[in-house]
Specification:
alpha/beta; five-stranded mixed sheet
């Protein structure tokens, strides 16, 4: 059995998905992913089993039934192989002379590729070109009917803007999305603004994903929805990370990433904007500029 494991969050698991799919295609074995997120984040991997990675995580010590640690890259135990997919693992960084705090570059596709280069080498596998590992979700496995109906009902709008206003676990940048949504929806009544977290505004051109995606884990569905949006804006959080997929990168979607860290853009595309002005006026200005394109 080959176990992939990740001790961190939804976005970390999502960014590993194309490497996981490739390894599963190249090796004939049984596979399981150990992580503590909702197992449905990888529901497009029907042959990939799931279990919790740990029971508790205290002072960087994993309390778990599995022989895994947060800092090792590959662990062999009897007939089982455990592969750590977290890109911040210390032993890999130390082995390669990398600084874990090098502008947080380890959150980018480039660092994931560097990590998996080592893993592929250890597994005697040939790694493909980096572009092939941009995350890719198989939407055949998700619930699309309600989303398709929502899009049909709202086809009259000239553009769709996805405001990913969930609170990230790590990037603590306060954004007044209520004011942003109120002002922009008033100024642009022909534009549909879709928010991933409810606020106290009800208008014809403001929608909330929870109103038409009634799932306890809606990350893949939000990803599918994002492929129909013209502009995607947010801080590095789970729903925003799940919009970072091939269908969007290679189809001229405009991403506006609210962060101080250039590597949070994850993958450098011509239409991926890093917004350093986190004021309400700054957020409104950049969205307006791209609405008018």
């Amino acid at each position: 059995m080959i176990y992939f494991y990740n001790t961190f969050h939804n976005g970390d698991v999502h960014y590993s998905r194309s490497f996981i799919r490739d390894i599963m295609n190249k090796i004939n074995d049984n596979f399981c992913y150990l992580h503590n997120n909702n197992p449905n984040i990888l529901k497009d991997f029907p042959k990939l089993l799931h279990d919790k990675a740990f029971n508790s995580f205290e002072n960087w010590n994993l309390i778990t039934k599995y022989p895994i640690t947060y800092y090792d890259q590959i662990i062999r135990d009897n007939d089982n192989l455990y592969i750590n997919t977290w890109v911040g693992q210390q032993n890999w960084l130390t082995k390669n002379g990398l600084d874990r705090n090098r502008d947080n570059r380890y959150c980018s596709l480039y660092s994931y590729y560097e990590l998996f280069e080592d893993i592929y080498k250890d597994l005697s596998l040939q790694i493909n070109n980096i572009d092939e590992y941009v995350p890719d979700i198989d939407f055949h496995y998700i619930e699309k009917n309600n989303i398709n109906n929502f899009l049909f009902i709202n086809k009259k709008f000239s553009k769709k803007v996805l405001l990913v206003n969930n609170e990230p676990r790590t990037v603590r940048i306060p954004i007044d999305f209520s004011t942003v949504a109120e002002k922009l929806s008033t100024k642009y009544p022909d534009v549909l603004f879709i928010l991933t977290n409810k606020i106290n505004i009800r208008k014809e051109n403001i929608a909330y994903t929870s109103d038409f995606i009634a799932l306890d884990c809606d990350l893949n569905e939000i990803s599918y929805l994002s492929t129909f949006c013209d502009i995607i804006i947010g801080r590095p959080s789970g729903p925003y990370c799940f919009c970072m997929i091939k269908d969007n990168f290679f189809n001229d979607k405009i991403f506006i990433t609210i962060s101080d860290n250039t590597y949070d853009r994850y993958y450098f595309t011509n239409n991926n904007i890093l917004l350093s002005d986190h004021s309400t006026d700054g957020v409104i200005e950049i969205i307006e500029k791209n609405i008018r394109i």
